[in-house]
Structures are given as C-alpha cells and as structure tokens.
Amino acid sequence: MPRMQASDTADVSRMTEVSRPIIQGGMGIGVSDWRLARAVAEAGQLGVVSGTGIGTVMARRLQDGDEGGHIRRALESFPDPQIARKILEDFFLPEGRPEGRGYRLNPMPNLASAMSILRLTVVGSFVEVFLAKEGGLGPIGINLMEKVQFSNLPGLYGAMLAGVDVVLMGAGIPREIPGALDAFSENKEVSIKAAVIGEVKGTAPQMRFDPNLVFPDLPKRMLRRPAFFAIVASATLAAHLARKSTGRVDGFVIEGPTAGGHNAPPRGPLRLGVTGEPIYSERDSVDYAALRALEIPFWLAGGYGSAEKLQEARALGAQGIQVGTAFAFCEESGLTARLRNAVIAQWARKPEGNGASIFTDPLASPTDFPFKVLPLEGTLSQPEVYGLRERRCDLGYLRQVVAAPDGGVIYRCPAEPVADYVRKGGKVEDTAGRKCLCNALMANIGLGQQREDSFLEPALLTAGDDLRALARFVPEGRDSYRASDVIAMILGASCGNTSMKC
Considering the entire predicted model, what is its pTM? Predict the structure, then answer.
C-alpha cells in the first residue's frame, strides 16, 4: 500500500473541515453576501459568498459611504496597502453619493481587462471572503459562474488571498479551474481557454492572470489551495470533470431544474410547453448510482430545502444538500428589505401563494441558459416595466466573445441595444425578451444604477420552485426569519436533535 503523502493528509483534513450537511447557495450578485455566509458558518454549515460582479459591489458600497466601516476594515488587512489606499481614494465617499448622482462606471471587463479592473476584482473578492471568515466561525466558500469568464481568475486569486475554504462553480464546464487553483496556490500565472463564438484565426484566445504582474509589490507566500466543488446537472458531466479536469475535483453539487437562478438546459433539442417553459424529461434525470461510483462527495440541490429532502439525499448517497431559496429571503440576505418583505408577504404568509408561479424563462438570460423568474410588481418580470427600460450594456459581465471577420474578437450581448447587437453580427431575433441581468441583479441588493434621466434600474428576482415552502421557516408571530431558523428547521428534524453540526 502506498504511503500517504503530506498533501494527501491535508486534502483529507480540508474535506473533513468543509463537508457539512448544508451548503448555502451562492446566489445572484451580492444576495449571498458576507453577512449571510457568516451567519451560516456560525451555525456550523458551509457559508458561501457570491463572487459575481464583486469588484463593482465593493466599489458601489464604498460610494454609498461604507455603513459600519466594514469594507475599510477589511481593506486594512489587504496585503498590498498601496492598492487598498488607491481603491479608497477612487471610490470612498464618506457622506455617500449626493441625491440623484449615479454610481461611477468602470471600464467593462474583457479578455485583456484594464489593470484597474483586475485589481478591483481581486480586492473585492478578498474583502467579501475576509469579512465572512472574520473571527473564524466556520468554513466559507465562494461561488462563481463559468459563464462570467472575464472576472473568474482575479476573483479566485482574491478569494485565496483571504483564505477561502471552497470554490464552487457552475453555469458551464469548469474543467480548467482546479488547475488554476493549484497554480495560484504558488502565485503562478494562469492561462485558460476563453469561450468564443465562431472560429478565430491563429492562436485561440486565452484569459490570463499573473499575480506577479498585477501585484508586483505583494509579499508572495504559498496560499492554501481551497477545495473545488463543481456545480453540474448530471452524473455524465460529473464523470467528465472527474476524469478530464486539470486538477483535483473535491466534490459535486448536483443541481436540478427546480433550483433558482440559471438552470442547465434540457438535454436534446429545446422544446417548450404550453406555458412557454422548457420541457425536461427522463433524459434529464440523475443517475445516482453513477455518481456514487465516482467516489467523490456530492450534494443535491433544487427543491432540497427541508428535513425530509435532506434525509432523501443521504439515502441516495449524498453528503447533504445545497439550499438557496430559503436563505435568499432570510434577514441576513443581501436582498433589499423591501424586496424580501414583499416576497414573504406574497408567498410565505399564505403557504399556497397568491401570485403566479415561478416562471422558467428560456429567453431572459443573455447566456441562453433558462432563468427562473419570480413574478413581483415593479420588477422586470412585468412586461410594462421591461418595456420602459432603455436597453444598455455598461457592466458587461455576460458579454459573449465573438470571432470577428478581421481575425480578432468583438464583444456583444443579446440584452444590449438591438442595433448594436445586429451591427456586431448578431441576429435580431436573438434579442427578443433578453433582460440585462447585470444591472437588474445589482438593483436587487440596493446597488442599482441611477440614470441621468432619473430612471432607477429595476430589479429582477429569482427563486426556486419551492418558494411556497418559505412559510415553514417564519416563526410564529414574526414577519421574517433568520438563517439560523432555516438550519434549525432542516437539521433539527433530520438529526433527531438541534445540533448544528450533525
């Protein structure tokens, strides 16, 4: 029998540390913020922050005055004080923004993002993870989307600088991310293949991030390599990543089409039902025997936010469950109080709900992934609100890279102005029904852009199909609930007691 190496022992120890029955979903832009992740970790489960758009989130919080001084406190611990000071000089407004003034816009990310954007993303990711981990209450993960490709490498490096315990990534096939984590642990440059529509002449475009170039004055030290959990929809994709990834895959989150946010498209040709939603079939069911055969821990997601579902997941061989919707509307969530209260009033106070069902919209997201839309007055879910918004693209997280006739690349998004999209070679029919998720998700957390014409970017909420079950988490006599209520409700019944680490 081969002797166990020190690295093997470290890997086992890391997985023991992070393998909890409940993984909190890494939702939206800033919904799974540091406060929510911290509350979940304090209750003994895996808290997760969202890394999507995190540089802009930090910059806008600073422009709003950094209430409580949390970002400034985290910046004091960033290992390159000069970069931290520059970010404060650029964005911090002690009194917040004057009424009517919009947030400062930064250059949009691309395959060769400006140095300022790379640094902003690294520092934003560091700050969010640092605040979640502050005090060492429990393990913290960061969730990223493979589709948001321009900011993933700097976001990963920033999270590792703050000691993140787990990286979770879905919305694509993150085959090269495990190897990137290995390289970043040694402060090495990482280069991964970019997703491009069409054929590019010559060398295939790459996304590169070199810590030594971006932070030449940063004291270099070995960084702990976090565990990597891939978020997938099938055992087939899990097996592919287990075999073909550039580094070790430590776990899988198997997410079904009832989960909130982006869903994996149905297998085979897209077919729509009478409601206009994608039709999922037996081809989309999960082969649990094949998952167990991989001998890699897995968690189940999508409608699993209950004690009964946790027991079912364990019976299928899972380590536990990932819970999103229940945490999205708790008090610690990054959603604005107005939106949380409106959803609870409409859904949780009446268990059967008094509004339309969650709609799996095949068109809303520029990514071509189906996107769960929660119908709510005053949001982009309403046709009249959608019609009032002038199309624009000024954040650019979901822009597609397209091969240009001259051999280079161009950037376009189906949710940008129609004329711009068509001018870049896109089809006008591909713009129908597309929504600017970048700006809408910022609005969800109170960081929506204020336009020159006094137009405030509207929100667009998402939730899983089990939204009606929120009522079970709201304690008697209260109009809201906390993350600890969710965990106690799930684990108390599942474990036969109220232990948070069962």
Answer: 0.92
